[in-house]
Amino acid sequence: MSTPFVSLIDVHKSYRLGDTRVHALRGASLDLRPGEFTALVGPSGSGKSTLLNMVGCIDEPDRGSVLLDGADVAHLPDDGRARLRNEKIGFIFQSFNLVPVLDVYENVELPLLIQPRLDASERRRRIRQALDDVHLADFARQLPDRLSGGQRQRVAIARALVTAPRLVLADEPTANLDSATAHHIVDLMIELNRSRAVTFLFSTHDEKLMGRVARVVHISDGVIVDDGIGPGGRAA
Ligand code: ADP
Fold it and tell me: Which residues are 67's β-sheet partners?
């Protein structure tokens, strides 16, 4: 067994809400191995976003450890965290988060503009490759509002992958899509996980999307309650 790329060890996180505290994670532990595709499944409010925010160095745990590529990242200073996110992690969100005044090509280019070592021709090559990978090469000069929901999410996937991250985190990426499009997006993420050997963690409240997923982790009330082989894993 290879060393995990991500380890959460007994992670706790609570938020203050008025006079009370909401316990979003109550001792969550999870390992993700390099190149693994994992679905995190649980109902709304079960702690999925909070867990992804811990893995993605967006937020800090109250206690417990978060190891990324062997380093403890739980309590890094803000700039260290930002650097780590830019270098190692791609993010995909439920509401796509595209910049409306930029076209498809420019949206995918954005994360590369803060990578100073990349020259212009290499940047163009990477953007073209990312657009090809999500089958949007012919849409490079469209604005996002001319695209369907599924196409917008494919732009967001290209933007997440264009920096060649080691890890992609997708927080309910299919929640705003119809069921057929949602299945296509999951299939596309699985295809890119295999072809690019990127570690993927995606969250969903929709059990019906699990058909081809190899590993399905269930979360309930802030703890991992089941971690098993999904139907996609048995078929493989
Ligand atoms: P999920 O992604 O599964 O819907 P979340 O991680 O968003 O779950 O939320 C888990 C719990 O933590 C919920 O009860 C939610 O209301 C609460 N929560 C999440 N973020 C905050 C916050 N910033 N402030 C207060 N409560 C929060």
Answer: 7, 72
